[in-house]
Design goal:
By secondary structure, the chain is α+β, with helices and mostly antiparallel strands. About 40% of the residues lie in helices and about 15% in strands.
């Protein structure tokens, strides 16, 4: 009996020691039972919380949070509108940057040739964008062949070999190299408007090619041999793109009918000759004006690994205060220049009503909490990023100041207000990041910023990771 009692006492002592030691060496900040009890006791299912519990568990949260006062005050009256016709639709793809880029050029063709409507082939440039991005991917694999596979730049490159997303500079690179064609010459396909599976399969093939190239490098194969193999790999990519998107034309025949039913003669064009004759815009006359309050103003920044063409330009911009950016935008729109802009479209935006307004959804009141952050904090802590590009086509000026902006989107005419959105000025301050505008609207001191050697930022920079977003 005594021996049994001593054994029981020993076991109890050991358990106590284990508990004490575990408590002493528990990870600091761990969610202990005491903390859980404290959190649990702080929660009270009062009448308001119970009402919210019943509402939220049975309804869409955004519908409950929709601010009726915003809807009540809303109107679609604008003191100035740019004449545009038609709404484009990027469908289930992340090509907003390309659609917006072509949409600022579309009114030129419509007005110059008195057309009822006109649309460029987004599919044509998307084809070359994918092939060029595939080339950049494989070239990066060759260039970084000595890097550890877990190197951060390698991880970024491998994550999305041919992303849908892009930048204004990517539009410029493509148009200058490949020209433009009308939509009917290379129309949309199922894969162009629903890119998910196509991207997945081509990315899988490119990653398999990356394995081969890295193995060849390990075998000490010469750079010339690696590039010869790369060309063969791109032939496979080209074939996959043709099967999904169609083959881009080198020349085509086209004629049009204007608003007075006058039909032009049929002529033969190359994509570049068509661009020169029907658009005739020097895209190098545009600059990227950015507002990132987390970085120093008055400086020139460039984002590495953002070019879609190997010998093209990376995204780069002048960082300025918001009021400077807005003043430039006002000047251009009032001069009937559509403006490409990027924003965080996921915040306080209603697709049903076509409204972008601060307080559009009052989530703080539903949860009785405070989610307030500054624009700089939202950027640095990954709460906000420019994830969509659209076009400003109008403005409402009251007492000398803009109160709201008219936006042409690329989500089709069934969303928003027949494809357009009203963007209120306070939303502009909080969620608009950049504009693309002609240099003639930009003050000289801002243009001089581009003469500075650029500060190079990584492609995962929180304020400009646009290319990796799926909008």
């Amino acid at each position: 009996m005594k021996r049994c009692l001593k054994l029981k006492i020993a076991i109890v002592v050991q358990l106590v020691v284990v508990l004490v030691v575990s408590s002493l060496f528990a990870a600091e900040g761990a969610l202990t039972s005491e903390i859980i009890d404290e959190i649990h006791s702080s929660f009270e299912m009062d009448a308001y919380t119970k009402a919210m519990y019943n509402s939220i568990t049975n309804n869409d949260i955004s519908s409950l949070a929709l601010n009726r006062d915003v809807l009540r005050r809303h109107n679609e009256i604008f003191s100035h509108k740019i004449k545009t016709k038609g709404i484009t639709n990027q469908k289930k793809s992340g090509r907003c940057w390309l659609f917006a880029g072509l949409n600022i050029m579309r009114p030129i063709v419509i007005q110059n040739h008195n057309l009822e409507s006109f649309e460029f082939s987004q599919n044509y440039l998307a084809f070359w964008d994918k092939l060029e991005k595939a080339n950049c991917f494989l070239e990066n694999i060759i260039e970084f062949a000595d890097r550890d596979i877990l190197d951060r730049e390698m991880e970024f490159i491998l994550r999305k070999p041919i992303p849908d997303g892009g930048y204004w500079e990517n539009v410029v690179n493509l148009v200058e190299k490949y020209g433009i064609v009308p939509k009917e010459i290379m129309p949309e396909t199922n894969s162009s408007g629903n890119t998910g599976l196509m991207n997945t399969l081509i990315s899988r093939k490119l990653r398999a090619d990356a394995v081969k190239l890295r193995n060849m490098h390990k075998q000490k194969k010469a750079l010339k041999i690696l590039r010869t193999e790369k060309t063969k790999m791109l032939s496979d990519t080209y074939k996959m793109l043709v099967l999904n998107l169609g083959e881009p034309p080198t020349e085509f025949q086209w004629r049009f009918e204007d608003a007075n039913s006058i039909v032009s003669e049929t002529r033969t064009y190359s994509p570049k000759s068509f661009c020169k004759e029907f658009v005739g815009v020097d895209l190098r006359k545009y600059v990227d004006i950015f507002n990132d309050p987390s970085k120093e103003y008055g400086r020139h920044y460039r984002i590495s690994l953002t070019r879609n063409i190997r010998d093209g330009d990376d995204a780069h911009f002048a960082n300025v205060k918001m009021q400077v950016l807005k003043d430039i935008a006002v000047k251009a729109v009032l001069d009937n220049e559509p403006i490409w802009f990027s924003c965080d479209v996921g915040k306080d935006q209603s697709r049903e009503h076509g409204i972008m307004a601060m307080g559009m959804f009052d989530y703080d009141s539903i949860y009785r909490t405070d989610m307030t952050m500054t624009k700089a904090q939202r950027s640095l802590f990954r709460e906000s990023v420019p994830n969509h590009a659209m076009v400003f086509i109008g403005i409402d000026i009251q007492n000398g100041k803009p109160t709201k902006w008219l936006v042409e989107n690329s989500w089709g005419d069934e969303k928003g207000s027949e494809g357009r959105w009203t963007l209120y000025d306070s939303w502009f301050d909080t969620n608009v990041y950049s504009i693309i505008v002609k240099k003639k609207y930009v003050p000289k001191e801002i243009l001089d910023i581009y003469k500075q050697p650029p500060i190079v930022l990584p492609p995962w920079d929180p304020a400009y990771s646009f290319v990796q977003q799926a909008d």
